[in-house]
Write a structure and sequence with these properties.
With 322 residues, the chain is an alpha/beta fold. Helices cover 46% and strands 12% of the residues. The chain has two domains: 223 residues, Spore Coat Polysaccharide Biosynthesis Protein SpsA, Chain A (Alpha-Beta Complex), CATH 3.90.550; 73 residues. The longest helix is centred in the last third of the chain and has 36 residues.
């Protein structure tokens, strides 16, 4: 049995080294088999600090051909690992900066093992407290409300998850993961066991998540729910159309049978508002679908681009591991 700890690193090797030591200490009292760390260099090979990991026997490094962002970087690595992952293995995904606390890892693993027989659920960290600025908290709450309104799903989780190997082998090739790792878990209705976890503080440095990157991250999280958003958009379209027709019929009836005139500006405003709302709605759905597809294509089959390159995949031989 192998427990794979997969984490993206973007110019943050020092934080990963702290994370590694914390995880090694955290899991000492439980049986997790062989612990294997998988670091993805999300700079695309431009970070010289990654060379500090080469002497570590329990660390293997994947280097994608270019920067993918932390969500798609995780998917890239997991798909490359799938041929090595056994059904009885565990796959852990988390950020390397310390905000996903290593002390919570044992509780996520215990949640997986609580099932009798082979586990079929994913253990996902449920955020109970965040240590961000007031501005970020306000924006995050606004995003959660928007996400709920568009998808009908409440998002309170991130990348911190434990996936049984048997589940990982079945679901990770689904194209929805090409768009967003954490959101795809929710969109595919995979059985999830939530474990309340408080978000920690960064080990080193400051977050490189700018407002623009955060906005893109939020948009990508919506992409796996395109079908649900389209259904809700269709409902809004139908409601708007019905209301517009009813208003038009009412104004027409008043004009014919009421003996009173309706100001032309009122009719033009009502008709113009209806047309503008429908055009805007149609453009939103069209652009959303097109953007989703372009993002998916950019990741399609990328995990096979560097297959067979020993320099890029210095993985240890684990075939004889207990």
């Amino acid at each position: 049995m192998i427990t794979w700890v997969v984490t993206p690193v973007y110019r943050d090797v020092e934080s990963f080294l702290i994370l590694r030591e914390a995880i090694l200490e955290s899991v000492m009292k439980i049986d997790i088999g062989v612990l294997q760390f998988v670091v993805i260099d999300d700079t695309g090979g431009l970070d010289p600090e990654i060379s500090r990991l080469e002497p570590l026997a329990d660390v293997m490094v994947f280097t994608p051909p270019f920067n993918l962002g932390h969500q798609r970087t995780i998917v890239y690595a997991l798909r490359r690992l799938l041929p090595r992952i056994g059904d009885d293995d565990l796959v852990v995904t988390l950020d390397a900066d310390g905000e996903d606390q290593p002390g919570d890892l044992t509780r996520l693993i215990d949640a997986i093992r609580a099932n009798s027989g082979r586990p079929s659920e994913i253990a996902l960290a449920l955020r109970t407290k965040r240590r961000e600025s007031l501005r970020f908290k306000v924006m995050y709450q606004a995003f959660r409300l928007l996400f709920r309104a568009l998808t009908g799903t409440t998002v309170r989780s991130g990348n911190f998850a434990v996936i049984p190997g048997s589940v990982a082998r079945k679901v990770l090739h689904h194209p929805t993961f090409d768009l967003s790792y954490s959101s795809a878990i929710l969109a595919l209705d995979i059985p999830i066991k939530y474990v309340p976890c408080e978000r920690g503080e960064r080990y080193k440095g400051r977050s490189r998540m700018t407002f623009g990157r955060l906005s893109m991250h939020g948009l990508r999280m919506l992409m796996p729910f395109t079908d649900r958003i389209a259904v809700r958009a269709l409902a809004v379209f139908v409601i708007a159309l019905v209301v517009g027709v009813i208003l038009a019929l009412v104004m027409l009836a008043i004009r014919i049978f009421g003996g009173g005139g309706i100001p032309e500006w009122a009719a033009f405003v009502a008709l113009g508002s209806l047309i503008v709302s429908l055009v805007a709605l149609g453009n939103f759905v069209t652009l959303f679908v097109l953007f989703s597809q372009t993002r998916a294509v950019s990741l399609a089959n990328i995990e096979t681009l560097q297959e067979g390159s020993p320099a890029n995949d210095p993985a240890p031989d684990l075939s004889d591991a207990p």
